[in-house]
User: Fold this.
Amino acid sequence: MSHKIRVFATCDIGRDALDILRQKGYGLEVYPEPEAPPKSLIVEKVKSGIDGLITTLRDPIDAEIFAAGQGTLKVVAQYAVGFDNINRADANKYRIPFTNTPDVLTEATAEFAFFLMGALARKIWPAEHLTRENRWGYWHPYLPFLGDEVTGKTVAVIGTGRIGLAFIKKCAGFDMNILCFDPAYQNHDYIRAIQEVKDLRFQRGISRERATIRYTSLNEALSNADFVSIHVPLLREGESETPTYHLINEKTLRTMKPTAMIINTSRGPVVDEVALARALRENWIAGAALDVYAKEPLPADSPLRDPSIADRCRLLPHFASAARITRLSSDPNKGMAGRCVQGLIDVLEGNHGGDVTKMPYVVNKEAFAK
Ligand code: GLV
Ligand code: GLV
Assistant:
């Protein structure tokens, strides 16, 4: 008798994608609550002998889980591009592959970062509050406040992976000068191509001034930028030669211009929130727009909620990829749900000749290299 494949999903990732697993005859159990299940429940499910585990960024996946699945658990399929909640060394120790959902959320996340930058700079939130609270007493050239343009300004892009490059592409459309920094990965071809696009726009009279793009040091990027947007993965001390934990801290915030604004759509712990709240309170910098936090959901007592900085601190609920097609499409080339399920199927059904190192969505290929 052939073994029936069993999968546990810690979260409902949408019916269309899950139906693909049901149609294959897999035994599928989905945790029914909107909140993350307790870790003990995940351990229990894994111990019961499931073949595949679908996780989100809310689930801590470490040696305890992998040990519980020793000999039975074949794959962890993460519904996210980031996988800092999964202990890679532990996955490798137990030789269990895990997958993620890159590419399909790149443009959605990059455009959200761009929109946050614009909303912050043009003071959309305080301006709407003014209107709604009936404090719009007159039209005036500069009262009660002005915003700042994005067009033609200088933006520092910290992290030039897929999302950082997509963000650069959007900034190029706004004739921004772009300073790139990446501690680990540079894509000079892409940056050259963007410069060519900028040059063409200038030559053909589409842009009034010639904008530039180049790689530089973190210090130079931060000290010259009007806007700083962060697109690095979270890597803690010991996980990488170039850790990104608290990359933005008191020292780096102090190198920014007092008129500068920072946008974070990557991972919360890349920014020291206590230092950032202080930087906003004491006007070392002019604004911040955050989508991610050290602790999520954002705690009620977070210093970022200080009402005295509310006009210059936008707080969003880890929402950058939260667009319909990006989140739910069952097409692995369009949606996180489709890509998550495809990554799971690739491992469980031995696609790509059963060679884990050839499966496109497997992250920890190093554990399987011969
Ligand atoms: C969301 O934060 C993701 O990593 O996909
Ligand atoms: C994530 O997809 C990144 O490379 O920025």
